[in-house]
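Notes from hallway chat w/ T.B., transcribed later so I don't forget. T.B. wanted the structure written out for a chain they're using in a teaching module, and asked if we could keep both sequence and structure tokens in one place. Agreed to drop them here.
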Amino acid sequence: MEIKWIEDFIALAQYQSFSRAAEFRNVTQSGFSRRIQSLEQWVGAELIDRSSFPPVLTPAGQLFREVAEDMLEKLFNTRAIIRTEQRIAGKSLQIAAGHTIALNFLPSWLKALAARFGEVRARVVPTNVHDSILMLVNGNCELMFAYHHPELPLHLDPVRYEHVTVGIDTLMPVSRPNQRLAPSFRLPGTPKEPLPHISYTETSYFGRCVALLLSRASAPPALRLHYESDMAEVLKKLVLQGEGIAWLPKSAIAAELDSDQLVAAGPSVWNLQVELRVYRDASNRNEFIEALWQYLREVSPVAG
């Protein structure tokens, strides 16, 4: 049995909708349903009455919910006490961030922070968007960094979880150049010769961004799936090896663009601008976090 199954179950009890609860938990509806079924198998009874609309808890589900909520509260409260005792001494931050952000943005950001606040000890946990959100919601970090697009919002309560925009990035298609420094693979491609696409997984945030971009195109490009990964750094290495095209954040390939190791694989119509945001739990009134948050608001590239 996994704690996330119980959290899924409680979300379903609150929303009374598989689709809305799955969206809140940042998981596909099919994956969410499988986790609820796994929990029911572990309990040994049906917890959800699926014959009604909206779905409601069975008597066993109602009993389990009471115990589960109490158990989770005690677990998280105990964990918070332990983590407070284990915190890094002095000015410190627990940070959750996507792998690309952790590699390409946070080192210089933390250096700039030190220039403003003095020594800041940071523990950075590179992870995917879903797990980053769970870390923030469960109190496992003070700050969570994630990309944002208005049509692909993260499902966080804006009252509880504040955000500040700390950067603007561009997701752009790139290719290794040929000898004339033109792209070896150029959008939009042709049906006879579709371009080898080094793609993100569908459920990754960048994968959803690329899907949104392609859905907007007046004529979809001719692409064939060549490789797939949820990590931009993996896609970048494959593109550098000449395996095809990929949409990569400009911040992650600035050096390669400057040195002509990579070139744009198409005009700017194929680009998608995204924000880089930092989130925090507004209930955390730590003095250092408050001062840091005020500073981030002052230097944000986006007003408001």
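Follow-up for T.B.: The chain has three domains: 3-85, 88-166+276-299, 169-274. Might be a good example for the class.
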